[in-house]
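Proteins fold reproducibly. Look at a sample protein:
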Amino acid sequence: MNTTRSSRRFGAALSLATAVLLGACAQTPPQPESNPAHGEPPPTSGAKAVTADPGAVANAAAPVALRPDHPQTYTVAPGDTLWSIAQRFLQNPWQWRDIWRQNPQIRNPNRIYPGDVLKFSHDATGQPQLEVAERVEVPLLKLSPEARVETLTQPIPPVPRAAIESFLTRALVLSEAQWKGTPYIVADDDNQGVYADRDRVYARGALFDQPRYQVFRPGEELREPGSGRYLGTAGVYLGEALLDKDGDPATFTLTRTVAPVRAGDRLFEFEQENELYNFDPHPVPPDTEGFILAKLDTDVTQITQYSSVIINLGAQEGLQPGHVLAIYGKDRTVEDPVSGGTVKLPGERSGLLMVYKVHDLVSYGLVMQAERPIRLQDRVTTP
């Protein structure tokens, strides 16, 4: 496996504070295609490992809670998401997989498009189900010479694209070893030392076979408060590089740079954007527990609905894109006014988040509901 393909698994993922700000200001592991509607290591400090199949245990734990006012049919509108549709039918939107059924008589039955008519019913066993009853005519585009067929209309995403786009595609977190294994820029063509748009640079460390790459620089280390456990090193997004000629070194032209590029900066292949949104809401298994480590959108001071956060749970704990966790405030100790002793008050539930990007030891989560103030180090657990 060449170095670039190895590093691609981690490209376009997580960043902290300054790293994210640089990338996001420039412009405001995927689920398989059969995923519904779109569809074991030891525990580490501060996080409990997910030790069972992420879908089976949690889904079997509770009956489906339907909204009493749910519609019998619903026409999907532009701007809808899987989460917003799930909220129309379910009291607990993370139970989406329990009601979604794929209609084999339509094209792309695992996708939902604006204009589709969804029908609610019960199956032969009395279980609730939701499926596409009528499909809007989806424009198709044939790409020659392979004659591949692609849809011109985008399926609805699991969450609002604008809320996560910059963090999903312009941020990453890698271990020290992973950073060292990625291809890197050697120099430019006239030895300037600092490079920007339209500068020609040379890179090595991989067999370059893609037309576009992203440029990152190792930035701030991410560590777990209290234990000091190393969770990875955030990447600072710098811009893009277009491949002119492969070789050792290969030749690139820099473009869309948002900060100066230097020798030693790293190159990552672009991920397919549609694959990044190919997930659906489902609960983490019981006993999953971690906490909010950092806030990604640094232009706001509070964590509110549609804020992106980093949690200290990742692939090693079994997390997947689409996992939904409940957020709880910290426990607090108060004085008992009668006995004179102290009483420990449990933290109250303050919201819900959905994981949308997973790395080895950390994940991105989008706050879907914020019922109370949400703070750093608030606990995240099974909803």
